[in-house]
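WARN  no MSA supplied for this record, continuing single-sequence
INFO  ligand: 1,3-dihydroxyacetonephosphate
INFO  echoing inputs
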Amino acid sequence: MNRKYRKTVIAANWKMNKTPSETKAFLTEFKNKLPRSRWCDIVFCVPAIDISAAVRAMRETRVAIGAENCNAAASGAYTGEISTGMIVDAGCKYVIIGHSERRAMGETDAEVNAKVLAALGAGLHPILCVGESLEQREMGVTEEWIAMQLKAALQGVTEDQMKKIVIAYEPIWAIGTGKTATPEQAEEVCCAIRTMIRKRYSAKIGRAVTIQYGGSMNEKNAFELLAQPDIDGGLIGGASLDTDKFLAIINAANQPTA
Ligand code: 13P
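INFO  complex generated
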């Protein structure tokens, strides 16, 4: 982290977990336990059906709500999809885009790019996910792969719009596996991502972009991961489903930075 130049963002990705009533109960408990001091931005990205309950539960707090996906179209015949306009109107500030679990369901780089542009157009902060497979890591092509994912996802994104984007580095082999990237491995890629952004935009944007790590981040490893200079937060799956574990990760963001 480096709080002088950029925001620290700790975000939950609930994936397909919790019903609306469970959302209400969980977030009410979370709100009561949340310390008053402000160390980082906190976001809960929840299933679409839980958004209203989450927004209601977190009203008048500093906690933001996000969606886990969106459709790039403004409206139309897309059964089961939700638009960025709907997400904004429901009270969200963030939307996860390009998660590897959605890419595995067939989401292409071109679709990720269209969703990023739609989200920015609607005034949302996209949390743009990138990351390599185990095979790619073992072949030594991690950085090339991520450079390609970023180039495709950021097509047409202006310098001004880039200020709204959070990038999440999520190595696929670390997601839900309990196999966290070491702080050094995670830092190496997050630092490379920052360099890519700096080269594509400017030194100022490179310095200001928030880059999260995601993949089995938990209450035990968060402190060390967040101590890395280029890791500005986390995108947390499993550990965000437990108030105490998620609060411990938020507490880990309260450490001195360079
Ligand atoms: P886990 O924290 O469960 O590994 O999930 C990470 C993730 O995919 C967050 O988007």
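The radius of gyration is 17 Å.
INFO  checksum written, moving to next record
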